[in-house]
Design brief:
The complex is a heterodimer of chains A (429) and B (127).
Chain A: H1 8-29, H2 31-39, H3 61-66, E1 80-86, E2 94-99, H4 100-116, E3 124-127, H5 135-147, E4 150-152, H6 159-169, E5 173-176, H7 178-190, H8 195-198, E6 203-206, H9 213-222, E7 226-233, E8 238-244, E9 251-253, E10 258-263, E11 276-283, E12 294-303, E13 315-316, E14 321-322, E15 327-329, E16 332-334, H10 336-344, E17 349-360, E18 363-372, H11 381-399, E19 403-408, E20 423-425
Parallel strand pairs in A: 3-4, 3-5, 5-6, 6-7, 17-20, 18-19
Antiparallel strand pairs in A: 1-2, 7-8, 8-9, 9-13, 10-11, 11-12, 12-13, 12-14, 15-16, 17-18
Helix pairs in contact in A: 1-2, 4-5, 7-9, 10-11
Chain B: E1 2-10, H1 15-25, E2 30-38, E3 41-48, H2 51-60, E4 65-74, H3 78-87, E5 92-98, E6 102-107, H4 110-119
Antiparallel strand pairs in B: 1-3, 1-4, 2-3, 4-6, 5-6
Chain lengths: 429, 127
C-alpha cells in the first residue's frame, strides 16, 4: 500500500494540487461540468485551493438522475472497466463508472480502512455485504485482498451458511450492516452457539446504514470484539470513504482522495468544524466519474482535531441521519437513529423497531412499534404499561414530539438482511 | 404453591388461538387461564399440566414467557381465605377461577400467605 500517513500540511498541499488537477480535468473532459463552469462564470484557473471550492455549485443526486446513465462520466468511455449502480427506488438507478485506476484506488482505500481498524494479513475476512451492482461486497473484497487477508465472499443472506462458514473457516473479521450483525448474533444463539465463545470474531466492519453507540455496545457484547463504523456510497466509489480507527472516536476521511465540507442543508452555507450539517464531498482522485461538491444527504459533524491514533486525516462523526430519511413530523426533524438509541438502553425491549407515520386530519402521528424482549419477566400488566410509558416519555424528551409506543411480541417485526426497512410513511400529502 | 406461566401477547384476533394451538400440538393441557389486557397488548396467565415442557415450547416459538408463583385454593374457602389474607396484610394482586371448584390467587408474599391460610385451616392446593 502507498503511505497514507501524511502530515496535515502535506495533506492540504496534496488536496490543493489534486483539486487543481480535477478542475482542469473535468473542464476539459466533462460536458456537464464545462457547462456548469461557463454558466456560472467560473474560470477553472481561478480554483487554486480548497477555499475556492465554495464558488462551485453543488452536484446533486438529481444531476446524476437527469444525466442517466453516463452523462457525468468524465473519462473516455474506452477507459471505463467497471459499472456499479445503486437502487433506483424513485426512477432511474444511479450508475457509477470506474477506470482501472479508480478500481485500484478503491481497493487501496478499503485496505487502509481495514488496516486502521486493526485488520492484518493474518485475518480471515468474511464479506457479508451484497456482491453485484451494490458496491459494499466488492469494495471490501478488493480491500481485504489488497491487504493480503483471506477473504470469504459470503455476500448477503443464507444466515445458517454464514454462521457455518464463520465457525468452520475461523472468520476473524466480519463485514456487514450493523442490523445484520445483530441478526447474525441472534441467529447464532438460536442455533445454540455463543458467538463470543464459539466464534473468533475480532473485528466487525459495519456500514451501509446509520447506527449508534448503543448498537456498538450490543455488537461488542454479543458478537465481535471490536465494532467499527465504515462509511461510503457508490457515487464516491463505494465503501472506504471514511473509517473508524482503533480509537473509535469518529471516522477518518481519506483526505488525499476526498475533500469534505459540511453545509447547512437549507442555505448551502459552509459550516465550521463542530457544526452539524450535510456532508458535501469532492472526489479529487477519481477519473471515471469524479464529482465536485457532491451533496451526500448524510448529516454529520466534521472534526479536524488530531486523533490519538496519529493519523492526520480529519474525522467525521457517525452519520446522524440522512436529509431524505429524516422524517419531518409536525415540522420537527426525526432521525430513526434517535429512536434506536433509546431502545438500546431500555431493558425489556429489543433494538428492532418500526416507525409508522400517518396523518389524522391535519395532525401527523408517529407510532413506534417495539418488540418486547423474550426475557422480559413479568406477570403484571402494570410493568408493561410502565415500560410503554417510560419509552413514550423518553421519546418525547429526545424527539420533542409525542410518539405512541406499541409493544409487539418478540421477533414479530421484519428483519432486514440489507438496509433495514424501518419506516412506514402513510401520510397522503 | 404452584407455578403459573405468564405470556405476553398482542391483543388482536388469532394470537391467543396461536398460543393455545402450540400447547395443544404438544399435548399440554390448560387447566386454568386468566387474561389481563391494556390496549393493544396483554398478559395471558396459564396453569398447565406440564409446565416445564410448556415453557420450552413457548420459548421455542419466540414468545415472551415466564413463571410466577401462585396459590390455588378451594372455591368454598374463598371468602374466609380473602379475609385471612386481608387480616395478615397480604395483598391479592389478581385472581381467576379454575374448573369451577378452585381459585388461583396471586399474592404479594406467597410464603406468608400460605402460612396465614394454613393457620386458618385453609389448604393451599397442588395441581
Amino acid at each position: 500500500m502507498c503511505t497514507y500517513k501524511l502530515s496535515k500540511s502535506e495533506l492540504v498541499e496534496l488536496q490543493n494540487k489534486r483539486l487543481r488537477w480535477l478542475v482542469k480535468y473535468v473542464f476539459d473532459r466533462s460536458p456537464f461540468y464545462r457547462r456548469r463552469f461557463i454558466e456560472n462564470g467560473i474560470d477553472p484557473e481561478s480554483i487554486r485551493t480548497k477555499e475556492d471550492l465554495r464558488r462551485i455549485p453543488f452536484t446533486t443526486k438529481t444531476d446524476l438522475r437527469d444525466n442517466y446513465p453516463l452523462g457525468l462520466v468524465s473519462s473516455d468511455l474506452s477507459q471505463i472497466v467497471r459499472f456499479h449502480a445503486s437502487s433506483g427506488t424513485t426512477g432511474n438507478p444511479t450508475v457509477v463508472a470506474y477506470t482501472k485506476q479508480d478500481v485500484e484506488s478503491w481497493a487501496e482505500l478499503n485496505a487502509r480502512c481495514l488496516e486502521i481498524a486493526g485488520v492484518t494479513p493474518k485475518d480471515v475476512v468474511q464479506v457479508s455485504y451484497g456482491y453485484g451492482l451494490f458496491t459494499g461486497g466488492l469494495g471490501l473484497h478488493y480491500g481485504a485482498e489488497r491487504l493480503g487477508a483471506k477473504v470469504i465472499p459470503a455476500s448477503t443472506g443464507n444466515t445458517k451458511r454464514q454462521l457455518k462458514l464463520m465457525k468452520d473457516l475461523g472468520t476473524t473479521v466480519i463485514c456487514c450492516t450493523p442490523s445484520y450483525g445483530l441478526f447474525l448474533a441472534e441467529s447464532a444463539r438460536d442455533e445454540g452457539l455463543d458467538p463470543k465463545r464459539d466464534l473468533k470474531l475480532r473485528v466487525g466492519v459495519f456500514g451501509a446504514e446509520p447506527w449508534s453507540e448503543n448498537t456498538r455496545r450490543r455488537l461488542e457484547e454479543q458478537f465481535v470484539e471490536s465494532a467499527h463504523d465504515i462509511y461510503g456510497m457508490s457515487e464516491l466509489n463505494g465503501p472506504g470513504v471514511a473509517m473508524e480507527c482503533v480509537m473509535k472516536d469518529g471516522l477518518h476521511v481519506w483526505e488525499d482522495h476526498y475533500i469534505v465540507e459540511i453545509i447547512d442543508p437549507n442555505t448551502g452555507e459552509v459550516l465550521e468544524p463542530g457544526e452539524k450539517g450535510e456532508m458535501v464531498v469532492t472526489t479529487i482522485m477519481k477519473e471515471g466519474m469524479p464529482l465536485l461538491r457532491y451533496r451526500t444527504r448524510d448529516i454529520t459533524i466534521l472534526d479536524d482535531e488530531p486523533c490519538e491514533c496519529g493519523l492526520s486525516h480529519a474525522r467525521i462523526k457517525r452519520i446522524l441521519g440522512r436529509t431524505d430519511d429524516m422524517l419531518k413530523i409536525r415540522g420537527i426533524c426525526v432521525f430513526p437513529s434517535q429512536v434506536e438509541e433509546i431502545l438500546m438502553k431500555t431493558e425489556g425491549v429489543s433494538p428492532h423497531y418500526q416507525l409508522i407515520v400517518d396523518r389524522e386530519g391535519v395532525m401527523d402521528r408517529l407510532m413506534v412499534r417495539v418488540e418486547v424482549s423474550e426475557d422480559f419477566k413479568t406477570d403484571r400488566l402494570t410493568d408493561l404499561v410502565n415500560l410503554q410509558q417510560k419509552l413514550e416519555e423518553e421519546l418525547k424528551d429526545t424527539l420533542s414530539i409525542h410518539a405512541v409506543v406499541e409493544l409487539v411480541e418478540p421477533k414479530k417485526l421484519p428483519r432486514s438482511e440489507g438496509k433495514a426497512q424501518r419506516i412506514i410513511d402513510m401520510r397522503k400529502i | 404453591m404452584i407455578k403459573q406461566l405468564s405470556v405476553f401477547l398482542e391483543n388482536r384476533p388469532g394470537r391467543l388461538a396461536n398460543l393455545l394451538n402450540i400447547l395443544e400440538s404438544h399435548n399440554i393441557k390448560v387447566l386454568a387461564m386468566g387474561i389481563a389486557e391494556a390496549g393493544n397488548y396483554g398478559i395471558v396467565r396459564l396453569i398447565v399440566d406440564r409446565k416445564g415442557e410448556a415453557l420450552e415450547v413457548l420459548r421455542g416459538a419466540n414468545m415472551a414467557v415466564n413463571e410466577t408463583n401462585v396459590i390455588a385454593i378451594n372455591l368454598n374457602d374463598l371468602s374466609s381465605a380473602v379475609r385471612t389474607l386481608g387480616d395478615a396484610n397480604i395483598n391479592i394482586d389478581y385472581a381467576y377461577t379454575m374448573d369451577c371448584q378452585r381459585v388461583i390467587l396471586k399474592v404479594n408474599n406467597e410464603v406468608e400467605a400460605i402460612k396465614a391460610l394454613s393457620g386458618a385451616g385453609i389448604k393451599a392446593l397442588e395441581v
